[in-house]
Structure formats: C-alpha cells, structure tokens
Design brief:
Number of helices: 8
Helix content: 25-40%
CATH topology: phage-related protein like fold
Number of domains: 1
Distance between the termini: 40 Å
CATH architecture: Alpha-Beta Complex
Strand content: 35-45%
Structural class: alpha+beta
Length: 315
Amino acid sequence: MAISLTESAKLSTNQVYQGVVQTAYTYSQVLRWLKFEAIAGNAYQYARENAASTATVYDPGDIIAESTTTFTQVVSPLKRIIGDAEIDDFAQQTRSDQMDQTAAQVALKIRAVAEKFEGLFIGGDSVLDAKQFDGLRVLCTAGNANRIGCNNDAAAGATPTLDDIDRLIDQVKGPVDLLIMTQRSKRKLKALFRASGASMETHQQFGMPIDYYAGVPIAVSNFIGDALTKSTSTDCSEIYALSLAEGFGVVGLQNERTMQAVERPDSGRLMLPGPQVVSIGAMESKDASKWRVRWYAAVAAYSLRGLACLDGVRP
C-alpha cells in the first residue's frame, strides 16, 4: 500500500517521526502529495506500460487481430540523500534557553534533504550523474509522446492559455492527481482566471489554502526553473501533470527497513515513509555532536501515459 508523508504523520504515534515528516512536507509542496511504496532491497524492478492494447468492431467471420499491452522492464535503484549537521556543544549548552540548537539545526537539515529529493524528482538524470534517479524531465520526452508545447507546440514557446492547461491534463490517460509548476506559472494561471472573470478554486488543506485547477491540486516547485531554453527563447518554464495512482502513475520508493512500522487495527501493519534522523554522537576532534539526516529513496513511473509535461511556458 502506497502512502504519503502527510498520511503517515496522522497514522504514527511517534512524535519524533511526526516532526521529521511534517518538516519535510512543509518545505516541499510536492511531498505533501507524493505517495511512497516500500521495497525490500536496494532497487525495484517493475514492468512499465508502453502502449495500451486496442479493440476493434468485427463482422461475423472476420479474422480477429491480436493486440496486447506491451511492457518494458525497468529497474529503479534507491539513491542515498544524506546531510550531516554538527552542533557545537558549547552553543547547545549556553544558547538553548530560547531555541534548542540541535532541534533547529536538524530541522534545517531535514529541509535540505527534502529539497534535494524534490530537485531530483523534477530534474534528476541518471545518465548525466549515476548518483541520481531519473526525474520528471527525463520521463517526459517527445519520444515518450507525453511532452507538448504551448500554443499547439509553438517552436519557441508561448504564453500559456487555459486551453494549454486543459491539453496537458488530457495528455494523461488516467486520473490526474497533481499539477506542478513554478510560482511564475501559477501567477500567470491566476491572471488568466481573473481575465475571464473567474477565480481559482481554493480549499483548506494541511492547515493552509491550496489552489486547484479543475479539481486538481497545484504544487509549486521552483526546481523547474523559469529560464529554460526552447529554440530561441531562454525564458521558458514547464508545467507537469501527474497521476499518483498505484500501478499506473508516479510513486516514490523507499526501503522498508528505513521506514517506520506501525500496527493498525483497521489495516494491519503499515510501513510509513520519510527521512531518518540518526545521532552519530560526540565528535572526536571537536567539542561538538553530529546528527545525520538520510533518505534512501527513488521514483517509479508505472506508465509513461500517467504523466505529461507542457513546455515552452513563457511569461
């Protein structure tokens, strides 16, 4: 069963764990929605759908043509995202009357790890750097037929319209659960609504207002960037549409031994994802203690029809 960090925080009774995952998704809007699956080893092998099978109307006596869905075997190895924090023991002892120095530094390191995951989730490329996992930009290519451009694929991009967003959503051949864009793109989307005399749909979630487009929540990620190049334009961005459905869309991966186990009377044993905080202990050469935040994680895309990208998004 895939589960998100936000759901995990509700299910766990461990306050330290709750604090870790809440800190992670507070600083990453993507992590509020992405679900994670537990895997047994250090890599996950799965069948990625290539093209769906077809059906045809036949007359009596016609020869029926065979058509089956084809798959490609994909291996997604877990990657290690790690950050160390050294806390000076003098500062911890003398300056923690107002704010616990260890808690503050560890929280900042959790934020850094969460942001690193999000950066890889968007732009990770295992070909350019074997330490990375492939992100959305790699998974959405023209060759995979899940990348389209603004203004009906204008060569150098264009200012987006609401029709462009609708086309993007239509590219996903299943339920669309999340839109990801930069702050600039979101401002443009709001401006398009205002120009039409309407306002963007908003709901209270996670203790804050969340904007929606056609019932789909919007997550902002500035790891996409607003200075991408398309032909002669260097001020382009991208908008992603994702399905988060198990077995079809995009999910996070994490080794089950690095997850927190919780027993639920209604659903049995669950493995809850998120970064780990480990106390390394006192440092030998310094009057300081070291804490490590680590996350053994990756991403799987079960079908390339479960995600799509709108590129050439100009201001």
